[in-house]
Amino acid sequence: MFRGVRDVFLRLQQENACATRLQAVVRGHQAKNKVDNMRKLRQEEMNRAATVVRKYWLRAMNRRWYLELKAEFKEHEDSIITIQRYTRGYLVRMRMWRDAIQAEERLWGAVEIQRCWRGYLGRLRWELEYESVWSREEASRTIQRFVRGWLGRTRALRLRKRIARYEFEQARRRFKAAQKIQAAVRGRQARQRIDARRRHLHQAATEIQRVYRGHLYRRKLWEKVVSTRIVQIQAASRGFLVRNRRFRLIAQVILIQRHYRHWLHRVPEEERRRRVDDWRRRRKEARAAR
Predict the structure, then answer these.
(1) How many CB atoms lie within 10 A of CB 139?
(2) % of the chain beyond a pLDDT of 70
(3) Which end of the chain, N or C, is more open, meaning fewer C-beta atoms within 10 Å of its C-beta?
(4) Please, are residues 160 and 107 in contact by the beta-carbon 8 Å criterion?
(5) 77-128 and 2-75 helices cross at what angle (nearest 10)?
(6) How far apart (Å, rounded) are the C-alpha atoms in residues 49 and 199?
(7) Is residue 1 part of a domain?
(8) Which helix (H) or strand (E) holds 149?
(9) Do 101 and 148 belong together in one domain?
């Protein structure tokens, strides 16, 4: 009978331990899922907050950049007016130069037409007065005069063209040199402003990254401390449960031993044997009935 009670007790104890183990595993899995969900929600909330902060920060930076650029444009109105003045002067000089070239071409065309017409008249006169000495001399003088006038006009025209081209080339070189100097100076000023702006943005981004990484590291440390404290609390709770379960088991064993010894002391040996035989007989009958 004692063995049967012990087997039943051990089986119940084993079932209780298995159920406790299953409950602990299931609850641990549920707690882990709950903690993961809480961490996920917290991370999403932090991401949304960081996105909102970054949106407002970028908006403020873009507005500041726009206002600075607007103020800078207002400060450089004189430079813009100067550029327009030089550009308009260049356009006017270019128009005047083209008009001069057209006038010279028209003049050259008129002179060429006159030359041809006068040559024709001279040849006609020379043919009509061929036989006359006076006609030949007059024609020769006229031709010489025309030729010399044409040569003089041609030389003067070439000289004027050469002088005009030289002066225009000098003006163009001075204008190009001024443009290059202005471009170099403005490029250097623009690069200095851009470098200062880039350094400021880099410093601001570095500061934001440092603060955010410090916040993440402190948060990770806090989560690690919390998880460590949770593990310690779980270990203490499980140790307490194990010790309490062991204490109860020892108390039950002592109680069973006490009752068994009391039973041995009170019931005679023959009666005990008879009861054991009856118990075995009932057990065999129960097995046979199954």
Answers:
(1) 21
(2) 95
(3) C
(4) no
(5) 50
(6) 27
(7) no
(8) helix 133-266
(9) yes
- For 30-67, what is each residue's pLDDT tens digit? 888 888 888 888 888 888 888 888 888 888 898 888 88
Question: Domain span at residue 252?
Answer: 77-289
d(C-alpha 85, C-alpha 277), whole Å: 130
Q: Per-residue pLDDT tens for 200-212?
A: 888 988 899 999 9
Do 44 and 176 share a structural domain? Answer: no
Domain count, the chain: 2
Residue at a domain's end among 32, 67, 102? 67
- Contacts with 111 (C-beta within 8 Å, 6 or more apart), sequence order: 150, 153
Report yes or no on 14 lying in a domain: no
What is the C-alpha separation between 156 and 151, in angstroms, rounded? 8
128 and 59 in one domain?
A: no
Write b or e for each residue in 45-78: b if 16 or more Cβ atoms lie within 10 A of its Cβ, otherwise e: eeeeeeeeeeeeeeeeeeeeeeeeeeeeeeeeee
DSSP helix/strand/coil, 51 = helix
Same domain, 94 and 218: yes
**Range with the poorest average pLDDT among 16-25, 56-65, 161-170, 172-181:** 16-25
DSSP letter at 267? S
Identity of residue 80 = I
Rounded alpha-carbon distances, angstroms, from residue 273 to 198, 227, 257, 276: 101, 59, 19, 5
In a domain, 257, yes or no: yes
pLDDT of residue 1: 57
Q: Evaluate whether residue 44 is within a structural domain.
A: yes
Same domain, yes or no, for 63 and 205? Answer: no
Q: Could you tell me the two tokens for 225?
A: 């401390």
Same domain, 51 and 99: no
